[in-house]
Each structure stands twice: as structure tokens, then as C-alpha cells.
Design goal:
Radius of gyration: 44 Å
Distance between the termini: 59 Å
Strand content: 5-15%
Strand order of the largest sheet: 10-9-8-11-12-17-16-13-14-15
Largest sheet: 10 strands, mixed
Number of strands: 17
Number of helices: 34
Length: about 1100
């Protein structure tokens, strides 16, 4: 609907003027000298990023002087009056070589004045489209197509192809009127609508199509020259009819190469000569078409005299003989004697003379309704003419019969005809030359297609109604004295068609050699294909010299093919692919409904675009399925190359919008229900630590992420800066760039997010809670073990770590903690023989089983074997437990060695008590006193020394402590004769019911005695927290077993115990974990998220 604007004048006064100018001067001198520039009279000017706005424009001033309320916005945003003035004066340079005129301004400086575009719809769009659509196929092949395919099938082919181009024109009109289309035409439309990958692929295909079109027009030019104008100019000549086609191809190659070189020279010298000749070429096309229709009308009154000779029903070449059987005997008999041997078919059939152009009212249309396909070498026959067949169907090709030079079938005919409807992009390619492109392009293009469609449809019917069928199927006019078949119908002379078609093909070839290099230059200027950048350079006036050389080289390939019928299907593929993606672009933009999709052309719908796209795809496979596959492979390779090596471009294309819509739809679907166990995979939130330079401190954490994910699933790499976002915004962006660079070097595919928070604790908490979107959220947190937590000056590192553990547990998320992360292998390393040891102590969802399997998918860990250790308690049957575990792994489809390790519950040693005592006293002292780092270390060392002296005092040399006696009693040698039933530690113990009861009774008495003696000997131990003693005992003994079994393993995975509910024991928890991992090089602590992540079911 129309929008009304009201311009409100604001009075200018001196106060407002001085105020505004003062503000500008202050801001410019103080803050941003680059934002505003001043002219000679110190009037501030804006530097606006809009199109065609330069700093040298003397009108580039702030028009309003009383807008002090918006003075801050004026620094970055122009006033409406200034903006409207710039947009109203916007001009787009033409796509060809635009002639510039120089003039001197008032100051004497030389400026360049660009001619304003003055072309209207008729001159700028309609006539160029007509000239490009009507061409070589109309003059050289349309009569042959009608005779071979018949009127009905030919009419269907024309309707199908014209419908395809009409639907494409509708889609193109919508895209072309949705903004300005600069250089590149269809390439620009597709690339800005579907993205650089699609745009580059289709743009190069369109370039190849345009180049091969130049080859086709040149071949048409040479065919007209050598066949109809100067047939005696052939370089290669043969009298053997079987070699005639090969000789013709060689002549086409020689003359085609010379013609190509001449045309390339004309284009190189200057396009302005081509533009000046274009009107002449267009006049030739118009006059030729008028001559055709005039000739059709004349056949009603007086048909032209072009007799043809038939032997039986076979068409004969028109040579220097009369259509009398006696005169033909020289050709069909070995001599003129009565007793001579003659061709059997010649002897059985009579000679008939017919008019080749019987006229519109002759009724010949009935004979031409149906198709007459056949193999190469098949004779051209009039089916309705009576003849006597012969038993021997062998044909002597030296006889003057007219025959097919190629095999004919429907799909081949479609491929040859389709280039005759291309050229619909001529108007959109000239958008810069048009006075009103958004109105001229749709109107001119659609009218041109409608006009040419009408011409083609009427020509199909008129040719079939006026010309004899055997003449229509005579491709080179052999039966009508070597005349151009369509020329025999023309009036006043056949030379009007011959000369007109010759110059028409010449002009179309020059236009192709002019447009193709500029299309390649536009692609090169976008820098989306790195190896094409050299073709963006040219002469000083912008002529694409290097692109022209490449175009000539590719065009020469088509010339060497030498057959117009073989080249036509090739360029049909490339044009059809281009049209397919134009329709796809319109359909995608329409369905997405992006706010920027506001074309002025309203007569479009996504269903029409989809129909046009489907029709283009169908025509590709109808023309030639193998050419279609080759064209798609070429486009696919270009697409993948641009995606892999091309420059990243953000053009607001529809594919990106489609991806956003698809992502939104998928996220909404994921939100409906949690993922099933079979679909569960670790979606990682990686918590990184940054160094003082905002670089990644542990890059191997990203390597582990890559090895664990292998590019699949969600990965969010994040870090926290301590402070406010207002003060750390720039640092956060720098850190994010550094993290992205580290991710790229470590080949980690995922997202990066660096946040600023008042403290690290809250920052990590917010990331754990809010990272991800909808159903695409992380379920696992990966972080490094705080290795220097004991030596840290502050306590917050290990406190933040423990709080992170608590929050992941509360959020039901899995947690992975890597110790000695810097010693983990990089992505370039290849671990040889080794093992990944899993210590499965408690079942927390099966994540321990899944992680080694995922790691072994990566080439770093691929050669490592998986071993699973499980700990058996006193009540467990270790042999049965091992069998059950092996069966469980078999059902999980995991290959691993299984070992069950037995641990007794009574072997608490003096070392454990001492370790616990030191830990508790240290923890208590740190809570009561705020010590410096050095004082704290000295205090801890003194406590340790006192504890050791106390042990020595209570236990003189040669005596054992009570705890040691208990420990030795519980771990006495298996060779003791009093305990013959005890198994060797190298074997697994199997507990029976009787053994279990006897062992429990014995240990109860020993524990009571041991503990009583223990407290009598060491008063300090009596005050220990027995929970801490048990925890420390578990950590010590489990560490001993793990070190013994897995010290040489490449990686050890351990169940991570949960932190204490009482926060007062946080430091003790860190000590427990430190003892548990002591002596192991690479450890990955694993804590499940509270749900099953692995299943035995399919």
C-alpha cells in the first residue's frame, strides 16, 4: 500500500546553529576525530556507510541544525533528509564498459560524470531478450525437428520448454525486483538468494553454458557459410559419401577456430563495436522472421517452385539431372546398356516428382502430425507414397538417397531444441542500463518470452502445414538443391533468411563472448573461489582480459566437437541448472517470508517456482541423463570446494534463513521429550581456563574434546572473565577469538562463548545452567583438575571446583575431570600398543563403559585395548561376578578384557590414620588462621614432623604399632601353615557361606582389640573423624590397587566420588581425590548424570 511522507520544516536560528556546531566540534576534537570530517568552512560532514556516498560530496552536510536532542545519534546515524538525498541520487554502473565523460567543476578539479541510464522496457529488455532467444536453432534445426518429431510432439516440446522459461522468468522477476541487481545478473541473484556456495556453483555452470552457447553460435555461423553461402570454400573435400560427415566436421573445426579468433579480437578491441553492431544483428533477425511469415502467406496464393524427386517412397538428393528414371540409370546402374546390372529397388519402383513446398492449403499437415524417428543412416521416406520393397535391405550409401546423419529420438530432440528458448536473462543482466529496472525487467522479459513462444508454436504448425515431410527431415536441404529448408519458404528470396541467419548467429556469438568473461569477472571479484581471483583483473578500463582468454579456450573445446547437435545438449544442461536454482531461490525466499523479501513484482507464488524447478530437473534428465549427472557432479564439486576453501561470505541468503528455520523446528521438536538412551551421546560443555594473555591455558583439553566427539554432537567451549561486561567487553571478544583460533587448530567443531561475571563461581554456575538452547543443551561438563590447588595463595580455585561438581550433580549432568591434561596426546599423535583401563566401582549410568568406546573411534586411541576392572567385596562371588560382567559386555557389543579385584575391609594401616590426622589438623588450622603462603607451609610441615616424632616415641625400634599389627595380621602371608585354606593373592577368592561367617567373627574380635590398643598408644587418633578415616582408607587402598594394575596404561578412567554434603569438609574431599589419583599419569575422573546412557537393546 502507498506510504505518505510529510516533511516538516524546522526554522533555523543562530542559537541552534551554534549549539549544534559546538557539539560537533567538541565531540570531534575530544573523542572521535575519524567519525566526522570538516570542509573548508568548518561545517561538519557525516561519514555515512550507505551506497555511493563519498566524503568528497559537497552536499554531505547535516541538514538539520535544531536537532540537539538527537546530537549523539548523529555521530553514527545520518539525518533523514541527508539519507533520502543520497538514496535518490543513487546510480548503478552498467555491466558493460560504460563510457564516462569528464568535466571540470567550479574549483577546476576533474570529476567523472556517469551517464544516467535511459533505456526503457522495449529497448533495454524486450529487444535484447528477443535477439538472444531467436537464433541458430530456429533457422537451422526447427524444420528438421518438426519433420522428425512430428507436429504434435514438436508442439509439446515447444510448450514444455517455453513453460519452463516462463516460470523461470516469473521467479527471476520476483528476485530482480527485490532490490538492485548489479553486475553478474543471474549469478548475483542466485548467490545473494542461496548463498556463495550455490551462487558460485551455479554461476560457474551458467558461465560454462554461456561459453558453450558461443561455440554453438559459431558452429551455426560456419555451417551456414560452408553449406549454403560458399560451399566451394571447404578446405577438406571428399567424393566418398561415407566420409562426407567427417570431412564436414573437419572443415567446421578449421573455420570455427578462425571465426573464434576473429570474434575474440573484436571483443578485445572494444565492446562498443559489438554494441554498435547489435542493432544490425537484431534487424537481421526481425527481417528473417517477417520473411518467413510472408512466405507462408504467399504459399496460399502461389506456392514456390521447389520440386523434389522420389524413387518409390525414398527421397533423392537434387543433383544435375531431371526427375526421369532414364536419366537416373547412370546413378543406379553400372552402365547405360540394356544388359547392365541395376539396383533392385530402382528396377522395381518408379520415379515421382513432388512439390517440396505444397502450401498451407495443401493438406500436407496430416502427413506431418506424427514422428518419424530412426537410427543413423536411415533413409528419408514418404510413408504415404506407394513403393515395392526389396528382400535385401542393404543400402549402398554411394547412391543419391537422403538419409539421417544421426540417430533420432524424442529426448535427443528436446536437448537440441532447448537452447532456442534460452536468453531470458539478457534483460536482468542489463539492469544497470535501465531507467526503471524493477518495472522493465518483468514486463520486458515476460513479453519477450510470450512473443517468442507464440513464434515458435506458430512456426511448428506452419512448417508442418506448408512443407513436405521428406523435405522437413532433410537437415541440410539436399533434396531442394542444397538450399536452407526454411529459406525455401521465405519471401521474397531465400537469401533473406540465409544472410539474416548468418548475421544473427554472428551477433549471438559476439554477445556470448562479451557476456561470459564479465560473468566470470563478477564471480572472481566476489573472491568466493580462490583460484579464480586472477580472472578478476583486466585492462585499465575494466575489460576482463584474462577472463576473455579463458572463455576463448573453453569455447574452442566446443568448436573442436564441431557438431551443433552434440554441443546443444551440453549447454542445455548448464542453462537448465541455472534456471532450476533461480526457481529454487524464489521458492525458498517466498516460503521463508524474510522481512527483506519485498519484490515489486507481485504475480508470483512459491508453487509456480516449485513447478518450474521440477520442470527444469525433468528436462535435464529428459535431454540426457548422463549429461545431467555430469553437470550435477561439476556443480557439486564446485559447491564443496567453495564450502571448504572459499571465503566466508554473509549475504543474508535464503539458505542461511532456511537453516535457521530448520534449526528452530528441530529445537522445538527436541524440547518435546528427552532423548532416548540409544540416542544419548556426550554433549559437552568444556570449561576452559585462560592465561594472563587471554589465551587457552590447556589446549589439550580441546584435543581431548575432539577425540571424544569426532565432530558429532554438541560442543560448547566456554570460559569466564572476572569483572563486569561493561569493562571487559573488548577482552571477552578477544578471548573468544583466541578460543576459536585454538579450536580451529585442535579441529574442535562447536561453539565458543566467553562471559564476564563478577566472580568465577557465578560465571561457571550460569554457564552450567544456561548454556545451550532448548533441547540442544549440554549433558556433560568437561574440565581440567586444578593441579596446583595446594600451593594456591587463595582457596577459591578448589572451592570453585567443588561447587562446580555440586552444581553438575544437582543439574543431573555428567562430569569429566582430566588430571595432567597437558600430558594427554594431541590430535596428531598416534598411541601404539597400550590400554585404556576402566575402574568400574559403582554404576552411575554406564558412562564409564561408553567413553573408551568413543575414544577408540578416533585415530589417536584406535590401537589401544580396553580393560575393565571391577572391585569385589567380601560378600561377592568374584568368579561369578567376572562371568556376569563378561556377558554384560558381550550384550553391550563392547570388546574388553575383564578382571575382578578383591579388596578386604579391615586393613586400615597406620599410614592411613596419620594421613587423616595431618589432613584434619591442616584443615582446622587453615580455617582458624589467615596465614600467608609461607607461614601456612611452615605450619603444615611442623604438624607433620610432630606427628612422626610422636609415632617414633610410642613405637621404639623393633616394636610395631597396634595399627601396624592389625594391618599385618589382616594381610599375613598366604604361606602361613595355620591358614592353609587362604588363596594366593595372584588368584581370585571365592567366598562361601561358612567362610564368610567365620571370617566375620574373627575380624570383629581383631578389630575390637586393634582399635582399643590403637587408641591407647596414640591419644590424638581417638579424636579423628571416623568417616574421614574410612574415606582415606578407601582412597589409599584403591590407589594401591590401581597403581599396581594400571600404572602403565595410556589412560585410567575412575569413578569420581561425590563431594560431602557438609561444605566444611571440602578441603578433605580434595585430599581424598588427590590420594586416589596419586602415581597415575593420565586420569579421567567420571561422574554420571543419574541416567542410563548405554543399553543392551537395539
Amino acid at each position: 500500500m502507498p506510504t505518505n511522507f510529510t516533511v516538516v520544516p524546522v526554522e533555523d536560528n543562530e542559537v541552534g546553529k551554534s549549539t549544534l556546531e559546538g557539539v560537533f566540534r567538541e565531540e570531534d576534537d575530544k573523542d572521535s576525530p575519524g567519525q566526522l570530517q570538516y570542509s573548508v568552512d568548518d561545517t561538519p560532514r557525516e561519514r555515512c556507510p550507505f551506497i555511493n556516498i563519498t566524503d568528497h560530496d559537497p552536499d554531505d552536510y547535516y541538514d538539520g541544525k535544531n536537532m540537539a536532542l538527537f546530537e549523539e545519534e548523529m555521530e553514527s546515524n545520518p539525518m533523514v533528509s541527508s539519507l533520502i538525498n543520497k538514496l535518490a541520487n543513487y546510480t548503478n554502473l552498467t555491466q558493460g564498459v560504460t563510457e564516462h565523460e569528464e568535466y571540470d567543476n567550479e574549483d577546476g578539479a576533474t570529476k567523472v560524470r556517469v551517464k544516467s541510464p535511459q533505456m526503457g522496457t522495449f529497448i533495454g529488455v524486450y529487444l535484447p531478450c528477443m535477439q538472444n532467444i531467436l537464433g541458430v536453432i530456429l533457422f537451422l534445426r526447427l524444420t528438421w525437428i518438426v519433420g522428425t518429431a512430428g507436429i504434435l510432439e514438436s508442439f509439446a516440446i515447444v510448450v514444455m520448454c517455453c513453460t519452463c522459461t516462463m516460470l523461470t522468468a516469473i521467479s527471476m522477476s520476483a528476485i530482480a525486483t527485490n532490490g538492485v541487481v548489479p553486475a553478474g545478473g543471474s549469478y548475483y541473484m542466485i548467490s545473494r538468494s542461496l548463498g556463495p556456495e550455490f551462487g558460485g556453483a551455479v554461476g560457474l555452470c551458467f558461465y560454462l553454458g554461456t561459453t558453450f552457447a558461443g561455440s554453438m553460435y559459431i558452429l551455426g555461423t560456419i555451417e551456414i557459410l560452408l553449406t549454403y553461402i560458399v560451399p566451394n570454400a571447404a578446405v577438406f573435400v571428399t567424393q566418398n559419401k561415407e566420409d562426407k560427415s567427417e570431412v564436414l566436421l573437419n572443415n567446421m573445426r578449421v573455420y570455427g577456430t578462425c571465426c573464434l579468433a576473429l570474434m575474440a579480437l573484436v571483443v578485445f578491441v572494444g565492446v562498443k563495436y559489438v554494441n554498435k553492431l547489435s542493432l544490425v544483428f537484431l534487424s537481421c533477425v526481425v527481417l528473417s522472421i517477417m520473411a518467413i511469415y510472408a512466405g507462408v502467406i504467399k504459399t496460399i496464393i502461389e506456392p514456390p517452385d521447389f520440386p523434389i524427386c522420389l524413387l518409390g517412397n525414398r527421397s533423392l538428393q537434387s543433383q544435375n539431372f531431371k526427375c526421369i528414371k532414364a536419366e537416373l540409370s547412370e546413378l543406379f546402374c553400372n552402365s547405360t546398356n540394356v544388359s547392365s546390372t541395376c539396383d533392385e529397388y530402382f528396377k522395381l519402383n518408379n520415379v515421382t516428382e513432388l512439390q517440396g513446398i505444397p502450401g498451407l492449403l495443401s493438406g500436407v499437415i496430416k502427413d506431418n502430425l506424427w514422428s518419424d524417428y530412426g537410427p543413423s543412416g536411415m533413409l528419408v521416406e514418404k510413408k504415404s507414397q506407394p513403393s515395392i520393397p526389396v528382400q535385401d535391405n542393404k543400402i549402398d550409401f554411394n547412391l543419391p538417397y537422403v538419409s539421417n546423419d544421426i540417430s533420432t529420438f524424442f529426448t535427443m530432440i528436446v536437448g537440441i531444441y532447448f537452447p532456442s528458448v534460452t536468453g531470458i536473462m539478457a534483460g536482468s543482466n542489463r539492469s544497470g542500463d535501465l531507467r526503471d529496472a524493477q518495472r522493465s525487467i518483468p514486463t520486458g522479459t515476460i513479453l519477450a518470452i510470450a512473443t517468442t513462444s507464440f513464434l515458435y508454436m506458430t512456426c511448428v504448425v506452419l512448417f508442418g502445414a506448408c512443407i513436405e515431410g521428406v523435405v522437413l527431415r532433410d537437415k541440410f536441404g539436399d533434396s531442394v538443391k542444397k538450399n536452407l529448408v526454411i529459406g525455401t519458404l521465405a519471401w521474397p528470396s531465400q537469401w533473406v533468411i540465409v544472410i539474416g541467419s548468418f548475421f544473427s548467429c554472428c551477433g549471438a556469438g559476439l554477445q556470448s563472448l562479451t557476456g561470459a568473461p564479465r560473468l566470470l569477472q563478477a564471480i572472481a571479484h566476489d573472491r568466493i573461489v580462490p583460484f579464480l581471483q586472477v580472472f578478476g583483473h583486466g585492462k585499465s578500463n575494466g575489460e576482463p582480459t584474462w577472463a576473455l582468454l579463458l572463455t576463448v579456450g573453453i569455447c574452442e573445446i566446443g568448436i573442436l566437437i564441431a557438431s551443433l547437435d552434440a554441443v546443444a545438449p551440453i549447454l542445455s544442461m548448464f542453462f537448465l541448472m541455472c534456471y532450476l536454482f533461480v526457481n529454487l531461490a524464489c521458492a525458498v525466499q517466498t516460503l521463508l517470508g524474510t522481512p527483506n523479501w519485498r519484490p515489486r513484482f507481485r504475480f508470483y507464488h512459491w508453487t509456480l517456482s516449485f513447478l518450474g524447478m521440477s520442470l527444469c530437473l525433468s528436462l535435464m534428465f529428459i535431454c540426457s541423463w548422463y549429461y545431467a549427472l555430469v553437470a550435477m557432479c561439476i556443480a557439486g564439486c564446485i559447491y564443496k570446494y567453495i564450502e571448504y576453501r572459499g571465503a566466508e561470505k554473509e549475504w543474508g541468503d535464503g539458505i542461511r534463513g532456511l537453516s535457521l528455520n530448520a534449526a528452530r523446528y528441530a529445537l522445538i521438536r527436541l524440547e518435546e521429550a528427552p532423548p532416548h538412551t540409544k540416542n544419548w551421546r556426550p554433549q559437552l560443555l568444556v570449561l576452559l581456563k585462560l592465561d594472563s594473555d587471554l589465551g587457552v591455558k590447556h589446549p589439550r583439553l580441546l584435543s581431548l574434546t575432539t577425540q571424544l566427539k569426532a565432530g558429532k554432537g554438541l560442543t560448547i567451549v566456554s570460559s569466564v572473565l572476572e569483572g563486569t561486561y561493561m569493562s571487559l567487553g573488548a577482552q571477552a571478544k578477544t578471548a573468544e577469538q583466541n578460543v576459536k583460533a585454538a579450536m580451529h587448530s585442535e579441529r574442535t567443531k562447536g561453539f565458543c562463548h566467553v562471559v564476564a561475571s563478577s566472580n568465577l563461581r557465578d560465571g561457571f554456575s550460569h554457564l552450567i545452567q544456561s548454556a545451550g538452547l532448548g533441547g540442544m543443551k549440554h549433558n556433560t561438563v568437561l574440565m581440567a583438575w586444578p593441579g596446583g590447588w595446594k600451593q594456591a595463595e587463595e582457596t577459591y580455585p578448589w572451592k570453585n571446583f567443588i561447587e562446580t561438581v555440586r552444581e553438575t550433580t544437582s543439574a543431573h549432568q555428567a562430569l569429566l575431570v582430566a588430571k595432567n591434561i597437558d600430558k594427554f596426546p594431541g590430535n596428531q599423535d598416534r598411541l601404539g600398543e597400550g590400554t585404556i583401563d576402566v575402574w568400574w566401582i559403582v554404576h552411575d549410568g554406564g558412562l564409564l563403559m561408553l567413553l573408551p568406546f568413543l575414544l577408540r573411534q578416533h585415530k589417536v586411541w584406535r590401537k589401544c585395548k580396553m580393560r575393565i576392572f571391577s572391585v569385589a567385596q567380601m560378600d561377592d562371588n568374584s568368579i561369578q561376578m567376572k562371568k556376569d560382567l563378561q556377558m554384560f559386555l558381550y550384550q553391550l557389543r563392547l570388546n574388553a578384557e575383564v578382571e575382578v579385584v578383591e579388596m578386604h575391609g579391615s586393613d586400615i594401616s597406620a599410614f592411613t590414620y596419620e594421613k587423616t590426622l595431618v589432613m584434619e589438623q591442616r584443615s582446622q588450622m587453615l580455617k582458624q588462621m589467615q596465614l600467608s603462603r609461607n607461614e601456612r607451609e611452615r605450619e603444615i610441615q611442623s604438624i607433620t614432623d610432630e606427628s612422626r616424632i610422636s609415632i617414633k616415641r610410642k613405637n621404639p625400634p623393633g616394636a610395631e604399632s597396634g595399627a601396624q599389627q592389625i594391618h599385618d595380621r589382616n594381610t599375613k602371608s598366604p604361606s602361613n601353615p595355620d591358614n592353609k585354606a587362604t588363596l594366593s593373592p595372584e588368584h581370585h577368592m571365592t567366598w562361601t557361606k561358612d567362610k564368610l561367617i567365620a571370617e566375620r567373627n574373627r575380624q570383629r574380635g581383631e578389630q575390637n582389640l586393634g582399635v582399643k590398643d590403637l587408641f591407647n598408644m596414640k591419644p590424638e587418633w581417638g579424636s579423628l573423624n571416623q568417616s574421614n578415616v574410612r574415606r582415606m582408607h578407601t582412597a589409599v587402598k584403591l590407589n594401591e590397587v590401581v597403581v599396581k594394575k594400571s600404572q602403565g596404561a595410556q589412560l585410567v578412567l575412575l569413578n569420581m566420588p561425590g563431594p560431602p554434603k557438609n561444605k566444611g569438609g571440602d578441603e578433605n574431599y580434595m585430599e581424598f581425590l588427590e590420594v586416589l589419583m596419586d602415581g597415575l599419569e593420565r586420569v579421567l575422573l567420571v561422574r554420571g548424570g543419574g541416567r542410563e546412557v548405554i543399553t543392551i537393546y537395539s
